[in-house]
Amino acid sequence: MSAALEIHITTHGLAEAVDKLNRLAGFSMRQIGEALGTLGARQLERRVRSEKTSPDGAAWKPSRDNANTLLRSGRFAGSMDYQASDTQVAYGSTLNEPYPAVHQSGAVITPKSARVLRFFVGRNAQPVFARKVTIPARPWLGLSAANENEMLEELQAALDALVGGWR
């Protein structure tokens, strides 16, 4: 009686797999950082312009004069940007003033040298006097559950684009 062993090796798809691995070898994490940074800045701008909620979903307290909260001039919403490197990505407001931090955490404003504050409110610009003004926190910086899902989808899309999909 004779015994035989046959082994068949096929290389179907091997060239494609090697090509994908070669693309991964030249991959820079900065590409992912750029994609996620762009998305993160867009998410923050959307939160300020239209969603008007904190990352945990709580609605912001409306402005006292019923103006479009945090959007009077559009400068704040338009200041969202990002920086990406090979190891990290950061995004937020590029405004170099207290405005973003005040609205993230809230603040109490008191007069420096006068007895009262004087400012103008509303379209008629009527003067208002106060001993202090409390600005409620309107958290705008952070990830909501929906933001996290968008980030994961963006990450998947970026990786699929890099290697042409694994499926």
Short structural description:
The protein has helices spanning 14-25, 29-51, 99-105, 145-163; strands at residues 80-84, 89-93, 107-109, 117-121, 126-130, 133-135. The protein has 167 residues and is α+β, with helices and mostly antiparallel strands.
Rg, Cα atoms, Å: 26 Å
Let me know the number of strands.
6
Provide the structure class: alpha+beta
**What summary fits the major beta sheet?**
2 strands, antiparallel
* H/E element order: HHEEHEEEEH
Gap between N and C termini: 45 Å
Q: Regions with pLDDT < 50 over 5+ consecutive residues?
A: none
Architecture overview:
By secondary structure, the protein is α+β, with helices and mostly antiparallel strands. It has a domain at 18-100 and 137-163. The chain has 4 helices and 6 strands, in the order ααββαββββα. It has helices at 14-25, 29-51, 99-105, 145-163; strands at 80-84, 89-93, 107-109, 117-121, 126-130, 133-135. It has a two-stranded antiparallel sheet. A two-stranded antiparallel sheet has the order 3-6. A hairpin with a 4-residue loop joins strand 4 and strand 5 (126-130). Helix 2 packs antiparallel against helix 4 (145-163). The model has no long low-confidence stretch (mean pLDDT 86).
Descriptors for this entry?
rod-shaped; two-stranded antiparallel ribbon; 167 residues; alpha+beta; single chain
Which secondary structure elements does this structure contain, and how are they paired or packed?
Blueprint: H1 14-25, H2 29-51, E1 80-84, E2 89-93, H3 99-105, E3 107-109, E4 117-121, E5 126-130, E6 133-135, H4 145-163
Antiparallel strand pairs: 1-2, 3-6, 4-5
